[in-house]
């Protein structure tokens, strides 16, 4: 699967680990930056990856900053994006099944690489449930 990936300086190390994991798992991630631990502005990278997902060129995305909060707020400004901060396996499943999330957001301050990889694997494999959940996602999509 093609996956848009981005981070700010606070998420750079975890992003590097997740890019390796995604490639080793047979996915085709594209790194939308940042490319170092030098201080930068997270909205730039959140927007780039989120727009790639919203365009349909990338079915899913992954964003990382220190808390996940800034990235999720910025990404959800892009129409067609349903980004979710994910900190455990239950959130990974729920965000996919119930909300059809298309961007997983991690807070590098709160999650270690091995746990993030485990959660990301679950998130990537989980399908949206449809039914009443699809109706609700459609309602979200109509919000302007």
Record keyword descriptors for this entry.
Ribose 5-phosphate Isomerase B, Chain: A, five-stranded parallel beta sheet, 5 strands, 46% helix, globular
Q: Would you write up a description of this structure?
A:
- The structure is a single chain.
- With 144 residues, the protein is of the alpha/beta class.
- It has a single domain (2-142), classed as Sugar-phosphate isomerase, RpiB/LacA/LacB (Ribose 5-phosphate Isomerase B, Chain: A, 3-Layer(aba) Sandwich), CATH 3.40.1400.
- The protein is built from 6 helices and 5 strands.
- The protein has a 5-stranded parallel beta sheet, sandwiched between helices.
- Helix 2 packs across helix 3 (69-75) and helix 4 (89-97) packs parallel to helix 5.
- The radius of gyration is 14 Å and the shape is globular.
- The protein starts with a strand and ends with a helix.
Count of discrete domains? 1
Strand content: 15-25%
Nearest-integer average pLDDT? 97
Write the CATH homologous superfamily.
Sugar-phosphate isomerase, RpiB/LacA/LacB
* Helical run tally: 6
Shape verdict: globular
CATH topology: Ribose 5-phosphate Isomerase B, Chain: A
CATH architecture: 3-Layer(aba) Sandwich
Total beta-strand segments? 5
Cα-atom radius of gyration: 14 Å
**Helix share bin:** 40-55%
- Largest sheet, order of strands side by side? 2-1-3-5-4
Oligomer: single chain
Structural class: alpha/beta
**CATH C-level class:** Alpha Beta
